[in-house]
Write a structure and sequence with these properties.
GO cellular component, one term (chains A, B): cytosol
Number of domains of chain A: 2
Largest interface: A-B, 71 and 71 residues
CATH class of the largest domain in chain A: Alpha Beta
Oligomer: homodimer
Helix content of chain A: 25-40%
Order of helices and strands of chain A: HHHEEHEEHE
Low-confidence stretches of chain A: 1-10
Organism (chains A, B): Agromyces rhizosphaerae
GO molecular function, one term (chains A, B): sequence-specific DNA binding
Shape of chain A: elongated
Number of helices of chain A: 5
CATH architecture of the largest domain in chain A: 2-Layer Sandwich
Protein name (chains A, B): AsnC family transcriptional regulator
Radius of gyration of chain A: 20 Å
Mean pLDDT of chain A: 90
Pfam families (chains A, B): AsnC_trans_reg, HTH_AsnC-type
Chain lengths: 160, 160
DNA sequence: AGTGAAACGACCGTAGA
DNA sequence: TCTACGGTCGTTTCACT
């Protein structure tokens, strides 16, 4: 189960209804057996297996464990909007190295970057902002949006 | 493989090093066999399976398929900051019903809500902003941050 | 909470339509 | 790209520690 063959070109893949159904099944339960999925979509176990292989090799889909930060004791989350000078790709790289940051995206708009942080508590968040983030070369100003309640989350993916 | 027994109380669970290692293995590959994981963490297959069962039942972890919107032809993503009046929980509920929105969070700061949208192209994004989002009762102003490049994404989860 | 063993079911490779 | 099938390996259950 390697990552070999990822479609780094990023050309969209045309999916038929059957593959979409297979993905739906695995979005509900990533460990569902290929045989079970086959019954649900009307295909043999081997055919399902081949399609899943193709989809993961092409980088359309990944089957992974997703954790709940709250349950792991990370009670404080926030999105940080960053206005920057210089090369934002470079800054994004440096932000990505910070373990408390789980999400970094380069944007167009009144922020140049958005970064999501996962912290144990407010103290860790303050520490992170004051030492790790605002001190970075190229960071002009930041704006913090502390999460009060997560209402919806659907799993997409697209780091490349 | 139901969702039964989710720990909706949200009390943090204390995890030992072994469970953390198991989660790490599954974050890398959600379909890795329990036997393999057992070899990696020094536990029998049955013990690993019991722990994984517990972790998923407690709501600490979920094993799911995560898709890449780009590969599925959704070439335009954006974060939308929303300033609102009235009950933001109510507004969040209505935003969550919009299929193009995959992420809604209530925040403290200069936005009341953040919503992430996944669109096929710019036209769909414009349409969505003008018709579905800005027209909602309670939406005062919006600010859109179009994604240029996703740099880092780590899978967390916490909708309740 | 963990191991070990036996029965069962899933997965994988290959052959063939 | 699919089905069919046999060998191998993973999973499940249970008795035991």
């Amino acid at each position: 189960m390697t990552n070999a063959g990822r479609n780094h070109g990023g050309r969209p893949v045309q999916l038929d209804e059957v593959s979409k159904k297979i993905i739906e099944q695995l979005q509900a339960d990533g460990r569902r057996s290929y045989a079970d999925i086959g019954k649900a979509v009307g295909l043999s176990e081997a055919a399902v297996r081949q399609r899943v292989q193709k989809l993961t090799d092409a980088g359309v889909m990944q089957i992974v464990a997703v954790t709940d930060p709250m349950q792991l004791g990370f009670t404080r989350q926030a999105m940080i909007g960053i206005r920057a000078s210089g090369d934002t790709r470079d800054l994004a790289d440096r932000l990505a190295e910070i373990p408390e940051i789980d999400y970094v995206v380069l944007t167009a708009g009144s922020f140049d970057l958005l970064a999501e942080v996962v912290c144990e508590d407010d103290d860790e968040l303050i520490e992170l902002l004051n030492t790790s983030i605002r001190n970075l070369d190229g960071v002009l100003t930041t704006e913090t949006f502390v999460y009060l309640k997560l209402r919806k989350q659907f799993y997409n993916w697209g780091t490349r």
